[in-house]
Amino acid sequence: MLKVASFNSYSEQHRLSLKLRPILVGELYLARKLKNPVYIFKNGLFYPVVNEGSVPTKEQINTLIKNAHREVYIYPEDIQEIKKNLETALVKVTRSLSVGDPLENGTKDLKLLSLNLGGLYENPHNDELLMLQFQSTQNLSKFLMENKKHQPQFFQNLIRENFHFTLSQPMLSSVLLLSFLQSIHLFHDKEVENLFLASYLKDIGISMIPDDKYDLKTLTTRDQELFANHADFSFELLEGRIPLSKNYLTIIKHHHFLNDKMKDLLQKDKKKSEPEIIFGLESTLVSVFDILVAMTNDRPYRKGMSLFQSLELIKMMMADEYPQEFKALVIFLKQFYKN
Length: 339
Ligand SMILES: [Fe+2]
Known about the structure:
- The chain is mainly α.
- It is 60% helix and 6% strand.
- It contains 15 helices and 4 strands.
- It starts with 9 loop residues before the first helix and ends with a helix.
- The structure holds fe (ii) ion (FE2).
- The site of fe (ii) ion has 6 residues, from helix 10.
């Protein structure tokens, strides 16, 4: 149980609501000595959970995560400090990935990149932040290819962080994609790198969706439209700002095409929507790994399904067009999840 302080006065609560801003619980790892307390918001009130003048301990952070707190509330001056520390730590680990223990470095890099992605969702027009994400991801792809044997462990370690799915999903699906592409030897390293980047950045359009919509089980038609448009938003946000060719930006723009195909398959008697574009193997694989990771992991409103169940669905989506690749995928996943 979290230790919470006694009830503050009404005026104190009001003052806090004007001052405090949310950050993700995982970002507390980057805090040094805090100038002010850290609060949680529960039943309409702010409660302090970390004292001012202290450094949040691993135990305090884990307790918050265990109690399903996605965000904590802190003062802007402490937020600035934490965001600065996060960027510094990301730059440092990105530059020295090959120095020291690769498992430790890779695990740390995946965690910092995913946390920093949260900052990009908040400020999608910040060029500096976007380039930091782009360059760090580019470096990471080379490092991952060089450290093939650690890929399953990197993947599992990121799942263990228990980040909100909007932060972990892009990295998880991209690590799995990279690992598979490397195993089938059909693509050059540069193509694998570009597909890794496209897969990782494909969801930044969700920055246009209000935070409180992600955890809802049922959405209004308008919200459904908003979610359906996030791939277009991603394309619009990235076009002209990152050194990825049109081909990869197009993959981002259409990365949900398989979901639409799936809907058509599940509603056989209804009129099928005509595909306007022919999608290639690269697009199919980016989409497949996105769907696979989404289906096999828990969401706030549902449990994840088994690998076997999700492969049944993926078979329907790709096995007709790509029977060899589907077979290779099944063999690859068995091996990847065994490690
Ligand atoms: Fe997406």
